[in-house]
Amino acid sequence: MRGGALTLAAQVVKFCVSMGATIIVARLLTPQDYGLVSMVVVLTGFLGMLQYLGLPAATIQWPELNHAQVSALFWVNVALSTLIAVVVLLSSPLLVWFYNEPRLLGIAAGYAVVIFLTGLAIQHLAILQRQMRFVAFATIDIGAVALGLVAAIVAALRGAGYWALVVNQVVFSVTTIIGAWTACRWRPSLPRRGAGVGSILKYGGNLTGYNFTTFLAQNLDNALIGKFWGAYQLGIYSRAYQMLLMPIGQIITPLATVVVPTLSRLADAPERYRNAYLRILERIAMLTMPLIAFMVATSDWIVLLLLGPKWIEAGRIFMLLGMAAIFQPVARSGTWLFITQGRSREMLKWGLIGSSIGVVSIVGGLPWGATGVAASYAITDLCIGTPLMFWYIGRKGPVGMRDVYRTIAPAILAAAGSLIALLLLRQWMSMFAYLPVRLALALCITAALSLLVFTALPTGRLAMKSFTMALNFSRKGRESVA
After folding, report:
1. 150: domain range?
2. Dihedrals phi, psi of 314, to nearest 5 degrees
3. Is the N or C terminus of the chain more exposed, i.e. has fewer CB atoms within 10 Å?
4. What percent of the chain has pLDDT over 70?
């Protein structure tokens, strides 16, 4: 509980830093700059997953590990990172040919360097998570993000254009390496045979297969929009997508660093495991679902305030993707169940099913441009993908599908009520010319209605009581540590 509270507090700082810098950089660059980098990221992100090979998750989750095993995993990650960096360099002419854009050659070279550097810190960060050293992990993360964004702002102010985004990633990687090797005193030894990592590599291979299929479904839209509709449309689409994912990622990503090692240690106690996961899920839903409903209802105002008039077309895409994103934080937590229950093979199978659904929806909306892709993807994910995933995960293990729906029901009602109220009151709120005032009113309405729903429902009252007890516990824990 203390680790979770500290991690979330650190994420608030990280979110403020990231959002502030993102607003500045977005105003200094153009949609085309972001579109060019997104064209390269489709390739580097896809190949970059191979450098992990699911091994960080294995390091965190594996019951017993020795020095020789972790050293072997370290050198596997480094070797794969080096190989993938070379492949990216050799593949860059294909990117230029595919998009008919010569500027991609230099961007690809910059991201190849980033891939190589990332491989040097993978196992050190995984060890920090395994040891539940959440403060050290969060400090490294915040420091790397802050320095990377400062470097990007300086580069953009000097007229670097899209190169500012490349500089951001290089500085982030270098800072992460320095922080990880400083905080984690473990040092790898030379690899040797007989380390006993065969089962770990198999486990990691299944996770990598799942990541590949998921990445394909989540990034095929970028590749196709860039190919058929150009850098401008891709820039608008990718910025809306990133703006929507940023608040979600600031909650889910750090929680994973706390929840996965915690649930892994409860795997042999099914009832405790089930209760722990459902309480975590309950709080995720209470925090994120009403918030995303607020973002959907005020999408055009948020984009106009944060990014400026030249990004106004991103507002509609932001709204459409937001409809599916209401369930995304809950859906993402499902991977924790696969990982901590050792169901990596089932996770791979679901990845194939889920990615197939996503690919069909993306191709179906492509004739109508970025807006069509966003609408098609949102409808399919909301009506087919997410419900099917809940059913698939709940077939086995301590947590069933009914447990999930029963737990998130109050948050669903709060989000739905807030969304309807905000849409009905939009004309009244539009009377205020100052955008921050409109957004503040909308946020207050969302908070008031959500609290009203939680208070009116017995399950909601129980959830609020549980949430309050958790906050008090974490505060007392911090005081005892101090």
Report:
1. 1-196
2. -70, -15
3. C
4. 88
Would you state the pLDDT for residue 246?
64
Tell whether 133 is covered by a domain.
yes
Q: Which residues contact 88 (CB under 8 A, 6 or more apart)?
A: 43, 44, 47, 108, 111, 112, 115
Burial class (CB in 10 A: 0-12, 13-18, 19+), 185: exposed
60/68 Cα distance (integer angstroms): 16
CB neighbours of 101 closer than 8 A, spacing ≥ 6?
A: 36, 39, 95, 231
Give the residue from 126, 137, 135, 132 showing the smallest Cα distance to 65. 126
CA 313 to the chain's CA centroid: 23
Same domain, 396 and 453: yes
Please say if the pLDDT value at position 481 is more than 50. Answer: no
Q: Which residues of 164-183 are buried (b: 16+ CB within 10 A; e: fewer)?
A: bbbbbbbbbbbbbbebbeeb
pTM of the model: 0.64
pLDDT in tens, 306-323: 877 878 888 888 888 888
Is residue 180 domain-shared with residue 216, that is, in the same domain?
no
Query: Domain check: are 224 and 140 in the same one?
Result: no
Using pLDDT thresholds of 50, 70 and 90, give the confidence band for residue 154.
Answer: very high
What backbone torsions phi and psi does residue 64 show, to the nearest 5 degrees? -135, 135
Residues 220 and 181 occupy one common structural domain: no
Residues 21/157, Cβ–Cβ less than 8 Å:
no
Same domain, 87 and 229: no
Residue at a domain's end among 153, 171, 196: 196
**Helix spans in 312-400 (H):** 314-325, 328-332, 334-340, 344-365, 369-380, 386-394
Residues 6+ apart with CB under 8 A from 168: 25, 148, 149, 151, 152, 155
- Give the residue from 175, 196, 217 where a domain finishes: 196
How do residues 372-400 score in pLDDT, each as one tens digit? Answer: 888 898 899 888 988 898 899 888 888 88
Mean pLDDT over residues 253-278, rounded? 81
Q: What does 430-482 look like in DSSP terms, one character per residue?
A: TT--SHHHHHHHHHHHHHHHHHHHHHHSHHHHHHHHHHHHHHHHHHHHHHHH-
Does any domain span residue 202? no
